[in-house]
Structures are given as C-alpha cells and as structure tokens.
C-alpha cells in the first residue's frame, strides 16, 4: 500500500467512515450533472500522456471538428537564371496537398458496487484512474506505431509505412547494433529528414550496454548516449512500457517527431452514472445500476493521428521517403 497521499492504494484507519467519505467526494458531491469533480478529471488527463509515448513526443494539435485538414507543400516553386541584361524572368508555382486527420473515440465504462466504494480500505477511484489512462495510452501507441486495432480512418501506422517505403534495417546487417542504428539515421538523412528521437522495445538500452569493442571495452558510453542519460547518438531513447510494443515487428524506431501529429478533439472526460442500464451489442442487459446498487465511471477521449510526409529537396518521390526508420529483429 502507498502512503496517505492517495495516489495509489492507500491503507485507511478510519474504516467505513472514511470509505463513505470517499464515496461522497467522488460520487455524490457536486454531481448534479453526473460529472466528476475537477481534481479527479484533471488527474486522468495528466496521467494519459505519461502512459503514451506518442502523446509525450509527437506534435499535439487541437481539433475543433472531427476532421482536420492541413495543407502541406506538394510542389516547390523554382527559381531560374535570367539570360543576360534583357532576359525574361520566368514564372513558377507552388502546390499544396491536403493532410487529413480524423478524431476517433476511445471509451470504457467501469462499474463498481456502491457497497465496495463505501466499505473499501483503498481509494477505489485512485486505483482505477491510472489504469484507464494507461490502457488508453496503450491503445493509442499500438494503433499509431504498429496498426494494432487501428481505426479505419487513420493512415497506415508508423512501422508498416516505414517498412513499405524501404526504411528498414535488419539487426545484424552492420558490424554491431550501433552500426545498424547509424544506418537508420543515414537513410532518413538521404530522404531529407533529421532523425531526432527513438522509441524502442523495453530493455533495448540495456542490450546496448552489452556492446563491447574488440578490446572488450563498453562502446555504449556518452558518445552514443544523450549526455549520459537514456539516449542513443545524442538523441532521446524512449522505451515503450505500456505493453503496446510488438518485438516481432521492430526493435527500435527512429523518427523525425516534427512530422508525427496527434490531434486532440476531446481530452478525457469522466462521468459518473448511477441510473443507467448497461447492455451488450445484442441488447442483453448486463447490469442495471439502479437495481443492483452500483455506479459506473464512463471515460471518453477523442484523438486523431497522422504522419506528414511533405515534399523536400532531397527526395521528390513521396513513395520513397518517410519520416521514420525501423530496426527489425533478426529473422
């Protein structure tokens, strides 16, 4: 059990009285519209970015509607030399394409018996809230990085899109893992993208620490790490710890984070239900909250995702450039 701060499971000393007080605080105080007090709602909103590597590091943009369309440069204006003193100046044009992002809904309902809330020795809501935030972060990362459970309106996920573009390096291609990672950076640089961060499977930073030179000296030191912290070639290395990583598809992904966008149409909202009837897809009643003395916390978030692949001077063919590269495991 944690201490009395209540950020995790907390041992109570006042027994049922304090349990009842928690029920009043979370479910009955100022709940005329069935919405949780602000401090609880803010807790959920703050926890979710910690649980999602995409929400931590991608560009987050507000969405005022379900669909957000952003113009991206699709044709460069070109300059021309003027022929002599009386030569004619030529004309050119620029062209923009549309980058579309669609917000989709993440949601879950967590029913809890009222007696459990009143009698429990732990703060039930403080136990549930971080787990919901973690689950939503996992769903976002799994869909955006690997395409697992991806909404149909979202574009191809980062790993399959990078592989389809040819931005993939098999582990063991180079002399060691450090050489393989450098090859990833070279691929992106040749396509006009600066690699500025990594996401990886859990434990990869420790695997890097096993690398040794021919004389047996560790080679994963400050010249590879980011200032002696968790990094690689001076760039942040972020293991994905929410359970969404698929080690069979990738060990490491290097990205230009500025071209990875996450749209927030609606931050997580939390609403307490006490009169609802919960059914399955066929209409079968699973739980009648009023009849069965239960409450339910409904969590909803709406989020979009897209990857910009704007025209650049080094690679004009869209299907031959992508702002991410994948280190794949050995076959």
Brief digest:
27% of the residues lie in helices and 27% in strands. The chain contains 8 helices and 14 strands.
Structure notes:
The structure is a single chain. Helix 2 packs parallel to helix 5. It is flat and about 90 Å long. It is 27% helix and 27% strand. The strands form 4 sheets. Strands 5-14-9-6-8-7 form a 6-stranded mixed beta sheet, with helices on both faces. It has a 4-stranded mixed beta sheet with strand order 1-10-13-4. By secondary structure, it is of the alpha+beta class. The protein contains 8 helices and 14 strands. The chain starts with 15 loop residues before the first helix and ends with a strand.
Topology of this protein?
Layout: H1 16-28, H2 38-51, H3 53-57, E1 59-62, E2 67-75, E3 95-102, E4 104-113, H4 114-119, H5 124-146, H6 158-164, E5 168-170, H7 177-190, E6 197-200, H8 204-209, E7 231-232, E8 235-239, E9 252-255, E10 260-273, E11 277-279, E12 285-288, E13 294-307, E14 324-328
Parallel strand pairs: 1-10, 5-14, 6-8
Antiparallel strand pairs: 2-3, 4-13, 6-9, 7-8, 9-14, 10-13, 11-12
Helix pairs in contact: 2-5
